[in-house]
Design goal:
alpha/beta, 15% strand, two-stranded antiparallel ribbon, 13 helices, eleven-stranded mixed beta sheet, single chain
């Protein structure tokens, strides 16, 4: 599958047309989406019109930006002017008005990206798989009977099957990285505030937006497009002064990598752990100084759940909740409504302590590497794997939510496949504001391997 960066070079040399690339993406949607349910809205006519405008700009040598003409999808959790943002919920009135773009969507329009449509999410993006009463369940490109993960599952599946070259998702506890690991794609949860958000999430400062692509290079290119200060986000960072593509090929020689196979409290599927260890060996062979370490923190699950369940309670507080609401969301919303201000502050204290610990950790190690998830994709339509002792999605995502608490950049890249043919993800975590370093490490790994070049063999129906 063609990368976005390759498309842009093709547009510049007039070897490829934005119209051709957009039609290819629309054809893939036509072939595959009936099997995997990645999209909630597709605007083929609008996309082709935008692609023709992009083609004219490229022919005139006047592209709007580095994403001009790139076929793109948007998770249905981010506002899109003129289109409803239903968030997978029956509670939202589709009539709108929908008269404003989220900041990142506005940046995509400014660069001339071709927006194909919007992708599936569970109700209010509350869990780690993608299904909802409104739109049904989203399947995995490698096996549609398995979950895509979530909550940005539609975006990951779309990218994995070439239904658009890149996508924009959100991540409050792993929601771009979980589906990236399950689908063999790439996703970055950047430092909090780097991609501005509006309207603010009910889940507060846990929630990030992030690029979802097939390659690390494309993730850097998309990050260049969607960053930029926006006054509507009170915590937005200044617009970056340099491209995230700068230095991405500098390699890992001499970098200090702390590798933790289990963070001291996780039990991994043996195949997952073996593939991750092999991936770390690749980085060591490339010159990184790898040390197996325990970062030294206990599982912050309880603190995260207090914050996340409180967010769920806030989401539902605006509505008369009934059986139209995902029962799992209803359950955790009830739990969240019972927490006190003291409970919330205690959880915040755990969060701050973890942030301090990781800040000190990165004085000794440039990056921390872990599995993205301890398991591979499980059957579609379930919130948790078979045999799980807990009904909570956070029980099987122990490597992702800690770094929403700390607001650090965390990248997931594919690092192999199990004997059953399911992808496994490798997570690269760096200190806050060191997003370029996560991309550099991920690029070094992809330069030495070809897992990201594998494509699903889903038959068209």
């Amino acid at each position: 599958m063609t990368q976005a960066t390759e498309l842009v070079e093709g547009y510049r040399s007039k070897q490829i047309s934005p119209v051709e690339a957009t039609q290819e993406a629309l054809d893939a949607i036509e072939r595959y989406d009936g099997q995997v349910n990645a999209f909630v809205l597709v605007d083929a006519e609008g996309a082709l019109a935008a692609a023709k405008e992009s083609e004219a700009r490229w022919h005139a040598g006047e592209p709007l930006g580095p994403g001009d003409g790139v076929p793109t999808s948007i998770k249905d959790a981010l506002w899109t002017k003129g289109w409803p943002t239903m968030r997978g919920s029956t509670l939202i009135d589709p009539a709108g008005p929908w008269d404003e773009d989220a900041p990142s969507v506005a940046r995509l329009r400014e660069t001339g990206a071709v927006i194909l449509g919007k992708t599936t999410t569970p109700e209010y993006s509350w869990k780690g798989v993608t299904d909802s009463f409104t739109y049904g369940a989203t399947g995995n490109p490698w096996d549609p009977t398995k979950t895509s993960g979530g909550s940005s599952g539609g975006s990951a599946t779309a990218v994995g099957l070439g239904m658009g070259v890149w996508s924009l998702g959100t991540d409050g506890g792993g929601s771009v990285r979980i589906p990236a690991a399950f689908t063999g794609t790439v996703a970055l949860k950047p430092t909090y505030g780097l991609i501005p958000l509006f309207p603010p999430s009910a889940f507060g400062t846990l929630s990030h937006a992030g690029p979802m692509t097939r390659t690390v290079r494309d993730a850097a290119a998309l990050l260049d497009v969607v960053t930029g200060y926006d006054p509507r986000d009170w915590s937005a960072m200044p617009t970056p002064a340099a491209s995230f593509l700068a230095g991405i090929d500098d390699g890992v020689a001499g970098l200090r990598i702390g590798f933790s196979a289990d963070l001291g409290f996780v039990h991994n599927d043996p195949e997952v752990e073996a593939l991750v260890r092999t991936a770390v060996d690749v980085l060591a062979d490339a010159g990184a100084i790898v040390t197996e370490v325990d970062p030294g923190f206990s599982d912050p699950l309880d603190a995260f759940n207090v914050l996340w369940w409180s967010g769920a309670a806030k989401v539902l507080s605006a509505y008369d909740v009934d059986d139209r609401v995902d029962p799992g969301l209803r359950r955790v919303g009830e739990l969240g409504s019972a927490y006190s201000a003291s409970d919330f502050l205690d959880a915040t204290a755990v969060r701050m302590e973890l942030g301090t610990l990781m800040g000190c950790f990165h004085q000794q190690y440039d990056v921390l590497i872990t599995p993205t998830l301890p398991i591979t994709a499980f059957p579609i339509g379930q919130d948790v794997p078979d045999g799980s002792a807990s009904p909570d999605w956070t029980d099987w995502t122990p490597y992702t939510y800690p770094f929403n608490l700390t607001q650090q950049p965390a990248l997931s890249v594919p690092c192999g496949f199990t004997k059953a043919g399911l992808p496994v993800g490798l997570q690269v975590v760096a200190a806050r504001h060191a997003d370029a370093l996560t991309l550099r490490v991920g690029q070094a790994y992809q330069a030495a391997t070809n897992w990201h070049q594998r494509t699903p063999t889903l038959e068209a129906k």
